[in-house]
């Protein structure tokens, strides 16, 4: 199994570990310390050696921050984790605070005293984040202090060793563009920005640029590494040499110079002493990297990672790979859905058994490299936790007459998938069917959207929420995230969310996943991946438009749809989508699954 169901948190240890950290802070002359969930790359997935927030607090979510002061401690999480944090953390030690409603800088203004020193690890906090935190400290007469050695690491006696996952080439026939051409293309962008060199801190940017993949973190084929990309000359790749075979080292040596990660800061200092203009992304680069340049007399040019947008816009080869991967994945998912319906009608199933079965169907394709994230297999009230992680301690038997939510995906060399379906088990209450149909209306609104060039995800986000708003409901997460090409299942800069300020462009892949969550009762989410395309001309229109092509191919549970709540156009979309699923998937499945699929995709 790619997924473990062992418990990954222990709230009971939070008190002792917090006390140990406070003792270490007192020794260092600090009045507090910031413990982010992030590693030096600010990635969603971090290796066990960098899971400091989880070790300290027990919280296992993908985003968060703890602030430990001498007399008070808080843990900040967003709306995805407001329920989870109270289950995983000793709230008598760490007070949960909503990250959006009360951002850490605002909280600090109310808690810090004049003259106090708040410590932080400058590799783990971005330039932009440190700027906000420093302003908050200065506003109350406190001081934000960079710490050389992380005090959490000093008290973490059994801290795991950093990962040494093997690095492999990603073939040009799957990448669609050789690394040499990518490097030249992005170097031109660096030069156009007036910079001498760009710092790349995100491993997925580096993996894309050099056409390599790795295995340093779970579920995402990333080689943890840094790079310096000059406007002219060879790039520098900072990666642990133990991850490279001799053959790969020889190949990469034709593209770049290879150095160990520990030499990055000194390399930046050399650039600073040479008076170079160094470009870095303030939202992703660690504060220590900017400090190394500036302290040595160089100039920092703040700009977005130059790889982000080119990586997000898939080329023709990557797009065709995504379509192929989704057909393969859709067939596996259809086999799973047919199995689920047959089995749940005769025998009890629990959340773990379902997650294991789905992974098994994907494995049987023979091409699954990993799952793209831990499967969210959520029965009844667990589905109301958007990022619920099933464990052996939490696994519920799926009750009859309820909703079951499963959010999952696969990593294939030709594409990354991510799909959520909410499934009827028995006779589902009418209220839950109404909620499902409201979510479906939002999903269809995004799927059928037509929008001009320059439209951002924030402008589309309202479409997914409108039907829910009319009923007095909403959901506390974005409507859609970007998706990589055999890379991160959560890729920027594109997103459909209130914070989605990047214009959507043809070739981008995004999720479409509105939801509804009733605490303690049920949760609903319907998710497809969508490819941004140039839409067909609209009669009478006077400008070209963009739209979406659904990549995900799996039935949406018709048993949960209240047809009278849908417009004729929405019914037509659902029927056309199901006709496409049947056409694409039925030839790829066995006859038993095919007969199930005939019924599941029949017109509403």
Automatic annotation (TrEMBL):
Residues covered by the Peptidase M24 C-terminal domain: 544-604
Domain of life: Bacteria
Molecular-function annotations in GO: metal ion binding; metalloaminopeptidase activity
Boundaries of every Peptidase M24 domain copy: 322-534
Protease keyword on record: yes
Domain Creatinase N-terminal span(s) in chain numbering: 17-148
A Pfam family it matches: Creatinase_N
Gene Ontology cellular component annotations, sorted alphabetically: cytoplasm
Gene3D superfamilies noted in UniProt: Creatinase/methionine aminopeptidase superfamily, Creatinase/prolidase N-terminal domain
InterPro entries from the UniProt entry: Creatin/AminoP/Spt16_N (IPR029149), Creatinase/aminopeptidase-like (IPR036005), Creatinase_N (IPR000587), Pept_M24 (IPR000994), Pept_M24B (IPR033740), Peptidase_M24_C (IPR032416), X-Pro_aminopeptidase_P (IPR050422)
Keyword vocabulary terms for this entry: Aminopeptidase, Hydrolase, Metal-binding, Protease
Similarity comment: Belongs to the peptidase M24B family.
Protein's name according to its UniProt entry: Aminopeptidase P family protein
Organism: Stappia albiluteola
Source species taxonomy: Bacteria, Pseudomonadati, Pseudomonadota, Alphaproteobacteria, Hyphomicrobiales
């Amino acid at each position: 199994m790619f997924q473990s169901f062992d418990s990954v948190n222990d709230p009971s240890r939070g008190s002792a570990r917090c006390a140990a950290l406070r003792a270490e802070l007192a020794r260092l002359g600090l009045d507090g310390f910031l413990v982010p969930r992030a590693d030096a790359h600010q990635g969603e997935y971090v290796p066990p050696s960098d899971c400091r927030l989880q070790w300290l607090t027990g919280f296992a979510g993908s985003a968060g921050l703890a602030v430990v002061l001498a007399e008070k401690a808080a843990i900040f999480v967003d709306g995805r984790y407001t329920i989870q944090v109270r289950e995983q953390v000793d709230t008598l030690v760490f007070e949960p605070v909503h990250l959006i409603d009360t951002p850490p800088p605002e909280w600090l203004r109310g808690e810090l005293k004049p003259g106090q020193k708040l410590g932080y690890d400058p590799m783990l906090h971005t330039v932009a984040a440190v700027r906000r935190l420093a302003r908050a400290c200065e506003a109350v007469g406190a001081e934000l202090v960079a710490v050389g050695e992380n005090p959490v690491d000093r008290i973490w006696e059994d801290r795991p060793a950093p990962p040494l996952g093997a690095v492999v080439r990603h073939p040009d026939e799957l990448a669609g563009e050789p690394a040499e051409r990518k490097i030249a293309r992005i170097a031109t962008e660096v030069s156009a920005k007036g910079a001498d060199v760009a710092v790349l801190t995100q491993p997925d940017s580096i993996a894309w640029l050099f056409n390599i993949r790795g295995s340093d973190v779970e579920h995402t084929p990333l080689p943890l590494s840094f790079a310096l990309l000059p406007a002219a000359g060879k790039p520098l790749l900072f990666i642990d040499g133990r991850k490279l075979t001799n053959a790969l080292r020889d190949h990469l040596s034709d593209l770049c110079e290879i150095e160990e990660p520990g030499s990055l800061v000194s390399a930046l200092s050399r650039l600073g002493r040479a008076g170079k203009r160094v470009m870095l992304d303030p939202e992703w680069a660690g504060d220590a990297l900017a400090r190394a340049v500036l302290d040595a007399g160089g100039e920092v040019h703040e700009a977005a990672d130059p790889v982000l947008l080119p990586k997000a816009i898939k080329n023709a080869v990557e797009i065709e790979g995504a379509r192929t991967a989704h057909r393969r994945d859709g067939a596996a998912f259809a086999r799973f859905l047919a199995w689920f319906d047959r089995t749940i009608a005769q025998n009890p199933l629990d959340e773990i058994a379902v997650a294991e079965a789905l992974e098994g169907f994907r494995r049987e394709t023979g091409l699954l490299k990993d799952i793209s994230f831990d499967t969210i297999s959520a029965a009844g009230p667990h589905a109301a936790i958007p990022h619920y992680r099933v464990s052996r301690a939490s696994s519920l038997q799926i009750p009859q007459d309820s909703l079951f939510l499963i959010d999952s995906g696969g990593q294939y060399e030709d594409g990354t998938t991510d799909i959520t379906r909410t499934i009827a088990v028995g006779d589902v209450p009418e209220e839950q069917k109404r909620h499902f149909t409201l979510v479906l209306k939002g999903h269809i609104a995004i799927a059928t959207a037509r929008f001009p060039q320059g439209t951002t995800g924030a402008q589309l986000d309202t479409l997914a929420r409108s039907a829910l708003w009319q009923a007095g409901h909403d959901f506390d997460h974005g409507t859609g995230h970007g998706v990589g090409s055999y890379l991160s299942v959560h890729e920027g800069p594109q997103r459909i969310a209130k914070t989605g300020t990047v214009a959507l462009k043809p070739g981008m892949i995004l999720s479409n996943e509105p939801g509804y969550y009733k605490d303690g009762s049920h949760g609903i989410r319907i998710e497809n991946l969508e490819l941004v395309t140039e839409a067909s001309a609209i009669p009478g229109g006077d400008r070209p438009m963009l739209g979406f092509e659904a990549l995900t191919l799996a039935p949406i549970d018709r048993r949960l749809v209240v047809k009278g709540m849908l417009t004729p156009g929405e019914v037509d979309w659902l029927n056309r989508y199901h006709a496409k699923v049947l056409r694409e998937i039925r030839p790829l499945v066995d006859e038993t699954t095919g007969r199930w699929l005939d019924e599941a995709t029949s017109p509403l």
